[in-house]
Amino acid sequence: MTHSLRLLLIAFVAALIAPAAAQSATHMPVGFFDDASFRWADNRQANLEQAAAAGATVIHTSANWAQIAPKRPATASNIDDPAYRLGDLDELVANARTNGLRVLIDVTGSPRWANGNKTPNHMPRRLSDLTTFTRMLATRYNGRHGHGTVSMWAVWNEPNLSLFLTPQYSGKKIVSAGMYAKLYRAAYAGIKKGNPSAQVAIGETSPLGRDHPTGLRGQGQSVAPGTFARLVARQKGLKFSAWAHHPYPSSLSAKPLEKVRYPNVSLSQLPRFEKQLNATFHRNVPIWITEYGHETKPTEPHGVTYAVQAAYAKQALQVARADKQVRMFVWFTFRDSATNPWQSGLEKPNGAHKPAFATFSALAHLISGRPRT
């Protein structure tokens, strides 16, 4: 073959490959967060199969340290220490793989033995205990110990709310961001020791917060996500793969692109949030949307109709797809159930599809690149 003919052939093959490569580069993980349906329900295997059929490629799940290790392990670094309750998580990771689904694990909550006999939203007294726990988990699921592979992680659910991390303030000063940075560093260190190739997301922020202490009865303390992220960014040496965020609208009936006052961050404020993250961390920061959804009537009286949920799901997915910094979209939840207070599933408790199922599925297959079966 002559040199010129070889070059022509190479150029021809490259022209065939380039469109496919460009198309695949636009794909991103799309999936669900629903431990009630995927880990604890009697029909959990069937639910995962349905999720895969809906176009999902990722399942978001929680590793609640307080529930996994309610008693101090004798050897906390041992992946087989009998104190650890990991059967349901093991099963989810295995079932997910069977259905072609990746798993994202969010580590959250501290056990009483680690935090001074307090509720799980308190810091552990020794951050090294958290590092040991996350190293154990990442080692267990690094693909070399018979428990499958988990390559995506996140640290602490909605740490800008006192419901999940307290205190948020010392007097009028915001302290939760600094606390969270310490938690994140400790967890990140353990995850990376257990699996150096793991991707780890920071943030997991709630969309709304006040930025000042409140004395309102029944209202927890909170910090707006934009403020929280700005303060976290002041902490030195933080390494992460993405910022995880939950851009829910401000009320159960609000539209996906409702206007909220920044530094609160719903879908409409994501571009401004991204600009802030890029500036404060001095790089383009990928966004993982690890929770989003709309609850439905009649089971949630203040929710939206089935038809409106379908329309809102379509709009939210389209917004995420059009945003070049968004690299993941997770819907909360998959199926309504008596054990889950949120009624945002795409299926009713009996498994019947809401209209949003077909709408979500059509776009999910397109965005995730999962072929239809």
Written overview of the protein:
The protein has a single domain (29-368), classed as Glycosidases (TIM Barrel), CATH 3.20.20. The protein is 39% helix and 12% strand. The protein has 12 helices and 10 strands. Strand 7 (199-205), helix 9 (225-233) and strand 8 (242-245) form a beta-alpha-beta unit. Residues 1-25 have low confidence and may be disordered.
What structural keywords apply?
TIM Barrel; alpha/beta; two-stranded antiparallel ribbon; globular; eight-stranded parallel barrel; 373 residues
**What is Rg?**
21 Å
The N- to C-terminal Cα distance equals: 42 Å
Tally of DSSP helical segments: 12
What percent of the residues sit in helical stretches (DSSP H or I)?
A: 25-40%
Order of helices and strands: HEHHEHHEHHEEEHEHEHEHEH
What topology, given as strand order, has the largest sheet?
1-2-3-4-7-8-9-10
CATH architecture: Alpha-Beta Barrel
Integer count of domains: 1
What's the arrangement of secondary structure elements?
Layout: H1 3-25, E1 30-33, H2 35-40, H3 44-53, E2 58-64, H4 65-68, H5 87-98, E3 102-108, H6 112-115, H7 127-140, E4 152-155, E5 169-170, E6 173-174, H8 176-194, E7 199-205, H9 225-233, E8 242-245, H10 270-281, E9 287-289, H11 306-322, E10 326-331, H12 355-368
Parallel strand pairs: 1-2, 1-10, 2-3, 3-4, 4-7, 7-8, 8-9, 9-10
Antiparallel strand pairs: 5-6
Helix pairs in contact: 7-8, 8-9, 9-10, 11-12
